[in-house]
């Protein structure tokens, strides 16, 4: 999910809300004036089944690794969806995979990356980071971004993500399907034991705001973990970013899960 931004000059006028997150003292979260406040930011922010449900690893069975079509253009995908498939051999992408679009909650991958590897190492950061990934918790992301406002832009620069920037607030962030798929492939290759990848494997079936997390690249073959994103204001859009045994996949769609689910299956021809 992506929250609305803090309008320039209005941060001091924001509404103060108290959010309860398991394992932490109550958090004070600022909500911009005039923005609809989701119920989960007011009520205790607890995902059903916390501290989590086990998700079976849907990894590839020995001997079944599939061939990859790399450095190719993915044809036949509706223009509302930008999609990229990345492996160590290259990228297969739709023609619009390099355009900047709302990153939504997939940008929490970069935010959490910074907090865990360049932050102060606090236990609170780790709790917030887990919530931001597994529950797609906006309050947790806002707390981390308030502490590390440079996080997204610094990680994006470090990874050469030219279409990715925070635009002043994590909920305003933009990225491209190609940027995000390449970033995720780098993490998978260089840090296969990453706790962020593990949290993506163990994402909650229901996010902090009640959204079911089950669409998009999550439906591709041999997917092991996914981070989803969706808009709560403005133009309706969704995102999904997944990794499998030998590829990563990202889809950014103007529309909802239904539209993305209709477009993503074309990618099966590029992942085997």
Keywords:
272 residues; 8 helices; single chain; 17% strand; hydrolase; hydrolase activity
Topology of helices and strands:
Blueprint: E1 15-19, E2 27-31, E3 72-73, E4 81-87, E5 90-93, E6 101-102, H1 108-118, H2 123-134, H3 138-147, H4 151-158, E7 174-175, H5 177-190, H6 195-201, E8 225-230, E9 237-243, E10 248-254, H7 257-263, H8 268-271
Parallel strand pairs: 3-5
Antiparallel strand pairs: 1-2, 4-5, 4-10, 6-7, 8-9, 9-10
Helix pairs in contact: 1-2, 1-4, 2-3, 2-6
Verbal overview:
The longest helix is centred in the last third of the chain and has 14 residues, at 177-190. Mean pLDDT is 81; it is low at 3-13 and 35-68. The protein has helices at residues 108-118, 123-134, 138-147, 151-158, 177-190, 195-201, 257-263, 268-271, and strands spanning 15-19, 27-31, 72-73, 81-87, 90-93, 101-102, 174-175, 225-230, 237-243, 248-254. It has one domain (52-59, 66-271): 3-Layer(aba) Sandwich (Beta-lactamase). The two termini are 30 Å apart. It has 272 residues and is α+β, with helices and mostly antiparallel strands. InterPro entries: Beta-lactam/transpept-like (IPR012338).
């Amino acid at each position: 999910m992506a929250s609305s931004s803090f309008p320039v000059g209005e941060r001091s006028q924001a509404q103060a809300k108290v959010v309860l997150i398991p394992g932490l003292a109550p958090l004070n979260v600022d909500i911009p004036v005039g923005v609809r406040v989701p119920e989960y930011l007011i009520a205790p922010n607890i995902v059903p089944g916390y501290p989590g449900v086990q998700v079976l690893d849907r990894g590839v069975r020995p001997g079944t690794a599939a061939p990859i079509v790399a450095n190719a253009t993915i044809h036949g995908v509706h223009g509302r969806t930008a999609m990229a498939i990345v492996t160590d051999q290259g990228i297969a992408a739709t023609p619009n995979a390099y355009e900047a679009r709302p990153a939504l909650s997939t940008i929490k991958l970069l935010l959490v990356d910074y907090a865990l590897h360049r932050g102060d190492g606090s236990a609170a950061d780790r709790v917030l980071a887990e919530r931001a990934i597994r529950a797609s918790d906006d309050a947790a992301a806002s707390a981390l971004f308030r502490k590390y406002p440079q996080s997204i832009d610094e990680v994006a620069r470090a990874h050469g993500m030219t279409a990715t920037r925070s635009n002043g607030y994590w909920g305003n962030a933009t990225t491209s399907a190609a940027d995000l798929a390449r970033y995720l492939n780098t993490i998978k290759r260089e840090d296969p034991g990453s706790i962020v990848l593990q949290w993506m494997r163990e994402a909650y079936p229901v996010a902090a705001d009640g959204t079911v997390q089950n669409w998009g690249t999550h439906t591709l073959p041999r997917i092991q973990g996914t981070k989803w994103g969706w808009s709560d204001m403005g133009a309706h859009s969704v995102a999904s970013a997944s990794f499998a045994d030998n590829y990563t996949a990202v889809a950014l769609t103007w529309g909802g899960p239904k539209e993305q689910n209709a477009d993503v299956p074309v990618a099966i021809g590029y992942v085997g």
